[in-house]
Amino acid sequence: KKVIEQQRMIAEKMKKVRYKLVILSGKGGVGKSFVTASLAMALAMKGRRVAVFDADVHGPSIPKMLGVHGKRMYALPDGRLLPVEGPLGVKVVSIDFLLESEEQAVIWRGPLKTAAIRELLAYTDWGELDYLLVDLPPGTGDEQLTIAQLIPGLSGTIIVTIPSDVARIVVKKAITFAKRLNIPIVGVIENMSYFECPDGSRHYIFGKGAGRRIAEEMGVPFLGEIPIDPRISKANDEGKPFFVEYPDSSAAKAFLEIAERV
Ligand code: ADP
Prior knowledge:
Keywords: ATP-binding, Hydrolase, Iron, Iron-sulfur, Metal-binding, Nucleotide-binding
Pfam families: ParA
Number of helices: 10
Family: Belongs to the Mrp/NBP35 ATP-binding proteins family.
Radius of gyration: 18 Å
Largest sheet: 8 strands, mixed
Function: Binds and transfers iron-sulfur (Fe-S) clusters to target apoproteins. Can hydrolyze ATP.
Strand content: 15-25%
Bound molecules: adenosine-5'-diphosphate
Mean pLDDT: 93
GO molecular function, one term: ATP binding
């Protein structure tokens, strides 16, 4: 009964969100959270009302990358939860804001995690939004599907990959995933595509154009390539939003271009 009521609440709230996108990757560590956080800031920069829902509870990456790690969500007397306000007005919702310590994340598994995610979706005061970006746990299996199914009326999925042979398999699995949800693939973003030297020359360390080629082969849009940049991992580790710290970087510019395509 409680579940049905919560699902009704989610449906009601999601009506006020124009585009609901889930971000997928084949495995951890390809930069899915970084891409989600940066795309959110790029969209906000363009004047869109954006929220990020962190459903990847393997650690506080989204809150860190948006510079709000350690903050708390507050509950209003009527039970509504207020999102944490991140840079450029991006709303951030994460289980991380409800945990007492980082070690606690370990206990969020299976049904417990689904229940927590459902509650967060239902009780958060999302307000009117242009974009809700959902950072799913890495992978394209049942866990990710279960979480995605909690959000009615999804608009599409974005696939984050890196230049490597497994990218083809990832895109294939993501297509199957999107079919099961009956939603389109908005496109593929290739992260860590190249390294840019101070003189502006680009070095495609892992080979050039694989992401674009695979996307074309599979008949899904290619959204853009993001460089590998040591300042990115440094900013992320320090809990500073890269996009805001380095707005003139090639990576930030790439996100602004991608924001026009989603
Ligand atoms: P995922 O969400 O796919 O597990 P993360 O977004 O947490 O991956 O990124 C994994 C690590 O790689 C983080 O330490 C992050 O700072 C770093 N990283 C991600 N993208 C880049 C990039 N383009 N250049 C340099 N470091 C990156």
